[in-house]
Amino acid sequence: MAVPVLIGFWVVPTGTSRADEHRRQQMLIKTAQIASPIQVPELVSARIAGTWSGWYSYSDGRHSVPFEFQLTDTGGACRGVAEEPNTFGDKNFAKLSADLECDALELTPGKRVVFRKRYKNAKISHAVRYVGFVDADLRRIAGQWEIGETRGSFVIRR
Q1: Model confidence, pTM
Q2: pLDDT band, residue 38 (cuts 50/70/90)
Q3: Domain ranges for the chain
Q4: What are 77-91's pLDDT values in tens digits?
C-alpha cells in the first residue's frame, strides 16, 4: 500500500513525481481561474444620526401620537432630542420635549436598538424605554415602548 507524502500543502500519493504533481496543481489553478468568483454580499449598515419621524400608540387603543427624534453622534455616543404634541402634560405647553440616549450608532438589518427618552418640560419627569428592531432597508425601526408596566408600540422612519 502506498503511503502519501506531504509536499508543501499538497498530499501526494507515493510514486507520483513532483513534475506530475506540479502539472496537477497548475490545472487546479487554471480551473479555479475559469470558475465564477464567489459573490460575497456587502455588509449593509447605516449611521443612526439624523431625523426620524414616527408615532407611538397605547395598548389600550388610544389614538397614536406623532413624534420626531433628532439623533446625533456626540463623541461616540448616540444622543438627541424628541418632540411631540402635548397629549398629557401641563396644558400651558403646546409640545413636549425630551432628551434621548440610544445604544447604537451603527444600524444593520434586524439589529435591536434601545432608546431612553426623558421628558424635560410640561411638568413631566418620567422616562420612556423604547426597544425596536431595524428593518432590512435601514430606514425604519419598530418595536415596543414601556414606562414601568405600561406598554405600547412605536414606529420611526427616515
Answers
A1: 0.73
A2: low
A3: 5-34, 46-157
A4: 999 999 999 999 999
pLDDT score at 126: 93
Q: Which cell numbers in the block locate residue 11?
A: 498530499
* Distance from C-alpha of 143 to C-alpha of 138, rounded to nearest angstrom: 14
- Only one residue has cell 464567489, namely 38
CATH number of 46-157, picked from 3.10.20.30, 2.40.128.120, 3.30.450.180, 3.10.50.40: 2.40.128.120
CB 86 within 8 A of CB 94: yes
**Whole-angstrom distance, CA of residue 121 vs CA of residue 138:** 31
SS3 assignment, position 145? strand
Helix (H) or strand (E) holding 22: helix 18-34
